[in-house]
Write a structure and sequence with these properties.
The complex is a heterodimer of chains A (233) and B (84). Chain A has 6 helices and 11 strands. By secondary structure, chain A is of the alpha/beta class. The chains are: A alpha/beta (233), B alpha+beta (84). At the A-B interface, loops of A face helix 1 of B.
Chain lengths: 233, 84
């Protein structure tokens, strides 16, 4: 199986995810420049983190019109696995491959820290190596990480179990309140209804080696490999 | 030639932390009669078009395609004719 890591002007997280796939997991992986138009031969497309086009207009707003995105949309619509991390998630939202939008952080500051995440759905291509309600640690590093969607979309995401990762306290508690804004604020990662497109703000590729403080993120990649190759990691 | 003005505002219900920060700051500065501040974007566009209606049409198209994200934002356009 083969991974593609797409690079847009301003992308900066491509090296991290490439390193994990190639050197930690020993998988075949290529960089694909955004001006390319062909994704034939790939099994998984990754839109990595960074600041494509300087976050001008809105994060991901310009990148989503890069030539490669037509191929990404076609790949996704045919059921191919697509993972967007950080800016990659923002691009997927701008491209309407996932519902909603990411707004500027409520603190108005760039947030860079480890976050605790609760796995809300383990029955996906991306999360089958996690345990139900497991608490993970992965770093976040973003300016525009505040997820937003309208109430109807939030209900749909909830009913269809499309909220895959929630921000959580260490004891696993995610505030279970009816308040719409609080519920939105807990969202760290969502998947499309069909289950082949995942977008997330936390960085699994930066928590895939012990030397970096933990390997919780590695299991997201081994989940994908497990599903596609049918072998445990 | 025409000059277009595109006003982009956050939809009702979308949090505007920048506006909140400005409100708090103005309160601290003693502007106690300010109730609410909301931030948006103002974009100036110069464009060629056959007539004003055509210019409005173009501005709406670029707003919906790129300048605004209709999930979170509303937009409004204005057009004025200007000499070359």
């Amino acid at each position: 199986m083969k991974f593609a890591v797409v690079i847009f002007p301003g992308t900066s997280g491509e090296g991290d995810v490439y390193h994990v796939l190639k050197n930690v997991l020993g998988k075949s992986v290529d960089y694909v420049w955004h001006a390319e138009t062909d994704l034939n031969g790939y099994d998984v497309i990754i839109l990595p983190a960074g600041t494509s086009y300087g976050d001008y207009i809105r994060a991901g707003a310009i990148a989503r019109f890069s030539p490669i995105m037509e191929a990404v949309v076609a790949f996704a619509e045919s059921g191919g696995l697509v993972l967007g991390i950080g800016n990659g998630f923002q691009i997927l939202l701008e491209a309407n491959l996932l519902p909603g939008a990411l707004l500027k952080n409520k603190s108005l500051k760039f947030i860079c820290k480890d976050s605790n995440l609760r796995v809300e759905n383990i029955n996906t291509f991306f999360t089958n190596h996690f345990e139900a309600d497991e608490i993970l640690s992965m770093p976040i590093a973003h300016n525009f990480g505040s997820y937003f969607c309208d109430e109807k979309t939030l209900e749909e995401l909830t009913i269809n179990q499309q909220i895959v990762f929630s921000y959580s306290s260490l004891d696993g508690k995610v505030p279970q309140v009816a308040n719409y804004n609080v519920r939105l604020a807990n969202i760290a990662g969502i998947i499309n209804k069909e289950g082949n497109i995942l977008g997330m703000m936390p960085h699994p590729e930066r928590s895939s080696e012990e030397i970096l403080g933990g390997t919780d993120g590695l299991r997201l990649f081994t989940s994908i490999i497990n599903k596609l190759e049918g072998v445990g990691a | 030639m025409f000059k277009g003005h595109v006003y982009i505002t956050l939809k009702e219900g979308v949090l505007d932390p920048q506006g909140k920060a400005a409100e708090n700051s103005l309160d601290t500065l003693g502007f106690s009669q300010i109730n609410q501040v909301k931030f948006g974007k103002f974009i100036e566009v110069e464009l060629e078009a056959e007539n004003k209606e055509e210019a409005v049409k173009q501005l709406k198209a670029i707003s919906e395609k790129l300048l605004a994200n209709l999930v979170i934002e509303n937009y409004r356009v204005e057009v004025v004719e200007v000499d070359k």
